[in-house]
Structure formats: C-alpha cells, structure tokens
Amino acid sequence: MCTETKAQSNSETLVAESDQTLVGSEAGQTSSGGGPGGQSPRAKLRHLSRSTQFVICAAIILGLTMTFVGKLVSQSIEDATIQTAAETGARYMQNFLEPFVQGLTTVKELPDATIQTIDHLLSSTSLSTHVVSVKIWLPDGTIVYSTDKSTVRKTFPTEEISLALTGKIYTELDNDFEDDNEDAFERSLNIPLYEIFAPLREAGTGKIVAVGEFYETAEALQREINNLRKKVWAIVGAATTAMLLLLFFIVRRDDKIIKQHETALEWRMDEQARLHSNNAALQHKVTTANHEFSRINELTLRRIGADLHDGPAQLLSLILLRLEELENSQGASDEEVLEMIRRAGEDALNEVREISLDLALPEVTDLTLHDALVLLAERHEERTETRVELELDALPDDVPIAHKICIYRFAQEALNNAYIHAGGKGQKLSASHCEGLLEVQVEDAGVGIPTEKPSVPGRGRTHLGLVGMRYRVESLGGVFIIESAPHAGTKARAQFKI
C-alpha cells in the first residue's frame, strides 16, 4: 500500500477576507409581536428612504399648516366679502330709509302714509329683486315697520340691534339666524339670505333714532364666496404641492449623494479591513519566515561545519599524521604512503571545492531565468556526471532578481537531493509560465522520501533542505509543494505569481 507524503505551503491559501461589516445599515425596531407584521409604524418608517420619510413628514406638517392657512385666508376673505357687501347695502338702505325716520325723534311710530310709501318703493323699484324683507327698529326693540306686518308694533330683545345702536354696521348669514319669532317670515322663504343691521341717524345732529334691518338674497354672494374659496384652496394646494415636490427633489438628490458616499465609504472601510487583515497575516508570515530563516541559517552553518570537520578536516589530519610517520622513518621512502597522502590531499581539495561550489552563487543577475536554469543543469551534470532532462517553456525575461535567485537555489537543492537520494536516476527540471503563474518543478525516480526519522546522525539533511526550500519560497509569497511516495520518486514544485 503506497503512502503519499505532501508538504504544502501555508501561503497557498490566502487569508480569508474579514466578514465584519464596519458600516452596517440600521436595523428597524420591531414591536413586541416580533414578527414582520407586528412592526410599529416608527419601525416601518425607518425602513423607508430618507426622501420618502421627508415627504411623509413634510406632507403632514405642510398639510396641517397650509390647511390652517387656507381656512384662515378663506374665512378672512369670506368675512371681508360679506362685510363689504353689507356696508354697500347698508349705505344704500340708509339713504333710502333715513328720510322716512326723521319724525321718530318725537313720535314712536310711522304714519300710515309713510308705511305705504315704503311698501310701494320696495315693491316697484329694483330693490325687490334682491331685498326680500325690511324692518325698522326703535332703540327700545320695538318694530315700527316690517314687510311682515304681523311683527309691527311688537317689542323684541335688543341683542340683535345692539351693535347697530353703537353706530356699527352688522351682518350675518342665514345659517346664523336664531329661532326667533321676528325672523319667522324670512325663515319661511327657504332661500339663502344674509341679514344687515344699519344705524339710521337724525339729519343735522347725527343722532341714531332707529335701526334699519333688511334681508338680502345671498345666492350671488355665496357663489362669489364659494368661487373665492375654490381659488384660495387651489392656490394653497398648488403652493403646497410645489413646495413638496421641490423639497422632495432636493432631498432625493442629496439622499442619492449621501447613499453614494455611504456605499463608497462602506467599500473603502471593508477594503481597508481586508487589507489590514491581509497585511497582518503577511506580517506574521514574514516574521515567521525570518525566524525560520535564522534557524535554517544556523543549521546550515552547523551542517557546513560538520561537512568540513568530517571531510576535509579528517583528510588533512590523516595527511599530517602520515607526514609525521615519514619524518619518523628517518628519510626512508615509502611510495605507498606518499601515494595515499596524495590521494587524501586530492580528496580534501575536491570536497572543499564542492562545498565552495554549493555556497557560491553563479552570476545570474545578467542572465534570464531560462539561461540560469540551463546553466544550473549543465553544472549539475558536470559535477555529478549524471543527466538532467530539461523541459523549459517560454519564460518571462523580467523575473525579479530575488525570485531568480530563489528559483535557482530551489532547483539546485532539489537536484542535489535527487543525486544524493536517488542516485541521479530520472532527474528532470521543468518550468512553465501561464496566466501569471510561474511554476518550477524538479523530479526524480528514486525510492522517495522515507516517513520515519533517520537513524544515522547527520542523515537528516534531506528534511533540513526541504524546510529551507519551503521557507525560501514562501518568503517571496510563493507556494512550495513536495510530493513523494515509497518507490515512486519525488517531485518538488515551487509556484509564484509573476
């Protein structure tokens, strides 16, 4: 049963975007019922747009205000119209009736001839078309003349004529008539009337000797008042509607601007939060990578020290020991010992050169990534006397120098591992670039990476090299993947967004 071992970079999956909403919309309050149907009017109002809320509030306030204004203006116009008509009628009736009441300063009733003259004038002149009834009151409330003869010489309360006795002209519409006996005749006509009281004065002295009351048909006056009311309400309604529409368009435009700014601010704050989260995650990864690099560098230095101690140092120690033996032989020549010293010196020199070659970075600054990988393969083949299969697609020429060095070191370490642990069997170096993703892969056909811990001290260099490759790749935001299975070889892959 094959077991596949994979080591994958933590940077393969980016930090998920923060789902915290920094600028949230205000939730509507619900009523004690809790359900959508149980929301209070205030909660429902909050769900509406600002312009709609403004229109509703403005309509209520302006509606009440303009209704009050309309009623006040229409009532004022109605009172002014009635008063004007009353004053006009009163002046006319004063001129008509005052000549007939001059004798009331000495007597308390009108002669029959005067009454007949008034009756004749009222029935034969144009007054009969709009004046339906006339009364003349004495200051004590006695009626001395009336179109309705049944009320003549009768006395009634003086409340109605009290204003006229003070010299003022008073008028009222028929809907204000009280249920008095003196108005029975006029009420029986069943037509709209308005009642006018005017003071009648004595010629020369101006003393009020009587009060003239007459009833005039109010149909024309009411039509005029109704027309004026319609005009007033039309003007008030048009003005209210115009103000509401104007304010609505202004508020709606400002509401759209506010919403656009809120949306832009929300997006910017969300983006800021996401970037902050990503930056924090990247900062953490950089800090971790720095720590790991320090640890790997320390381990690498220890490995180099161990290599120098176990290899060239031991060989040099052997050479020195043999040299001492030659000195102690008192000049006797020993060709076998000299040959052994020569071989040990050559081996020490070769090991020092190999270690130096691993530490020294070739001049890749002026080379393209393609040429650098070709050079790496050639040098590896020359050093190990093995073959490396190259499969390089079209690679970008503007790869940053940091990425170029990282890729070179990654491929160099992977090929060294392939030579050491797979005997150079099936070595293959491939690279491709597609849709901004640069991928470099080194594979071999060896026995794979063992899952158990090494039993021999110093043989854990493979795992140390994998950790170093991983953090080297991740430090530049890349993804490191290692795939291996027993007797199925090993694949090391590095991916970069370039």
From TrEMBL:
Family matches, as Pfam families: HATPase_c (PF02518), HisKA_3 (PF07730)
EC number per UniProt: 2.7.13.3
Catalytic activity: ATP + protein L-histidine = ADP + protein N-phospho-L-histidine
Domain Histidine kinase/HSP90-like ATPase: 407-496
Principal EC category: transferase
Record keyword Phosphoprotein present: yes
CDD domains in the record: HATPase_UhpB-NarQ-NarX-like
Annotated stretches, region: Disordered: 1-43
Top-level taxon of origin: Bacteria
GO molecular function: kinase activity
Domain Signal transduction histidine kinase subgroup 3 dimerisation and phosphoacceptor residues, every copy: 302-362
Residue spans crossing the bilayer: 54-73, 232-251
UniProt keyword annotation of Disulfide bond present: no
Signal peptide: none
Start-end of Polar residues biased regions: 1-23
UniProt keywords, alphabetically: ATP-binding, Kinase, Membrane, Nucleotide-binding, Phosphoprotein, Transferase, Transmembrane, Transmembrane helix, Two-component regulatory system
Name of the protein in question: histidine kinase
Species this chain originates from: Pseudomonas monachiensis
